[in-house]
Design a protein that fits this description.
alpha/beta, Spore Coat Polysaccharide Biosynthesis Protein SpsA, Chain A, eight-stranded mixed sheet, 10 helices, 8 strands, about 20% strand, globular
């Protein structure tokens, strides 16, 4: 049977972590190992994790919340390296400390991934959210793939990088819309996080027209958020990845959609 580990980064999450861990222990396909990476918490996050009997990695308090920043990648990497050292695993899931999974989540994701060897990243969705790519929390990786690419890069766009890398390598990523997860609090889309998200788009070489379109759509919901993304994308001091170019994929995908639409319209015109 395939083995799966779970990495849960957490910072001052004693209010939510217990319910998230309880959901994991209620899974029809239970994880083989769970590790909570306590990112310098000043509350009882570590104590709650230990009360469930899971592994705990305690990191020093850097003095600020790294939400959206590139240094947050190292928090998850600490958990991945720990799992890599203690034994062979086939899959690893990164899970936010406040995310609640349906009881069959792990079983369903792994069973679907095992039906297609080319799927290396997959997830469900979050209630009330639209996902075009596997979401960061609840995302399951084939562990060999994640090891081969060196885990998360210490750069902006670190959480999107594995998806982009998988696509450039000819692998598949999947979103299983029938698997709905729930957050214990609303998704945090602070202006600072969106600003760093814009930097991630630049690092991953997003197409400028695509970024403008995303900002246009975002503007109607949050003008400040749209401007934050744009500021991040246009900012300096961003190291671009040399091995992925999301813009190329975006342009090819757009062209493919246009050709398909033209083909459909041509058929319709021929039938009229």
């Amino acid at each position: 049977m395939a083995k799966i580990g779970v990495v849960i980064p957490a910072r001052n999450e004693d209010k939510y972590l217990g319910k998230t861990l309880d959901c994991l222990f209620q899974q029809t396909r239970k994880p083989d190992i769970i590790v909570v990476v306590d990112d310098g918490s000043t509350d009882k996050t570590s104590e709650i994790a230990r009360s469930f009997g899971v592994h705990v990695i305690r990191l020093a308090n850097r003095g600020y919340n790294a939400l959206g920043r590139s240094e947050l990648a190292e928090v998850s990497n600490s958990g991945f390296r720990f799992l890599n050292e203690i034994g062979r695993l086939d899959y690893v899931m990164k899970l936010d400390s406040e995310q609640l999974l349906p009881n069959n989540y792990i079983e369903k994701v792994i069973s679907r991934m095992e039906k297609d060897d080319r799927i290396v990243i997959a997830s469900g969705i979050v209630a009330g959210e639209f996902s075009r790519a596997p979401r960061g929390s609840g995302r399951v990786y084939k562990f060999k793939f994640l090891r081969d690419i060196g885990f998360f890069p210490l750069n902006y766009g670190w959480e999107s990088y594995p998806v982009a890398k998988a696509l450039t390598m000819g692998y598949k990523v999947e979103v299983f819309k029938g698997l709905v997860t729930f957050g214990q609090r609303p998704t945090r889309l602070a202006a600072q996080k969106l600003y760093f998200g814009g930097k991630g788009m630049k690092a991953l070489r997003y197409d400028p027209l695509y970024v403008l379109w995303e900002c246009f759509l975002k503007f109607f919901k949050s003008p400040k958020g749209a401007l934050s993304i744009l500021r991040g994308y246009l900012s300096g001091g961003v190291k671009k990845y040399s091995d992925v170019d999301v813009g190329v994929w975006q342009r090819r995908n757009l062209l493919k959609r246009l050709l398909v639409k033209i083909g459909i319209d041509s058929v319709r015109e021929g039938k009229s």
